[in-house]
Amino acid sequence: MKHLMHTSLMTALVGFSSLALAAPAPVLTEIVSQKTDITVAGQSYATTFNPTSFSLSDFTGLEVSFDIQGDYNYYQNESLNFKLDGGLYEFTLDLNSAQTVQAINTTLIGPGNYYHLTGTYNITGSEWDAIAADNQLNIAWFNAPNVGNIETEEGNNPYFNSQGDFVSYSIAGIATAVPEPSTYALMLTGLGLVGFMASRRRKFKFKL
After folding, report:
1. How far is residue 197's CA from residue 19's CA, in Å, rounded to a whole number?
2. Which of 183, 178, 205 has the alpha carbon at shortest distance from 58?
3. How far is residue 182's CA from residue 73's CA, in Å, rounded to a whole number?
4. Exposed / middle / buried, residue 171 (Cβ in 10 Å: 0-12, 13-18, 19+)
5. pTM of the model
6. How far apart are CA 179 and CA 19, in angstroms?
7. Interatomic CA distance for residues 148 and 153, integer angstroms
8. What tens digit of pLDDT does each residue of 181-199 get?
9. What does the pLDDT look like over 84-93, one tens digit per residue?
């Protein structure tokens, strides 16, 4: 009987421990994002992001995603350059580096001009450690000199006005897991079972 009770307690303890240690699959959480219209040729952008409700070092598995659209001429090798904290992370997005390239229109203003590019790229752990050290993100990007606003170049052309020219980026990472209250409860229950078993063992040895 005592052996059966001991086995049951051990089974319960293992079950509680498994539940306490179980964690949901990692989910990317957006840290910062911005969408900016392209209005002039060779446009640039710069901003500083200072989070106050969390720390950048609480994130791992960082990714930067781009969604851009404009007159990125293939033959002129026009591109967008993106930087975090100066040169700590730098990436150039062009028609060859984008994961998805859609030729929206290549006839109205010449061959190979108007494209929609999207892509997601990883920031290494060492890069992010250096970037997050001061809990501040200095974000900058600039287009190649000839990348301009096709809406302006084409006047009132309804096709371009409906599509728009823009640069959109998003930085996301996996937040450090914080145990839920239910997890703490399961852990405390497990510790209680351990104490109970230890107490019974001491009593059993004393009776012998």
Report:
1. 20
2. 178
3. 55
4. buried
5. 0.71
6. 12
7. 8
8. 554 445 555 555 555 565 6
9. 999 899 999 9
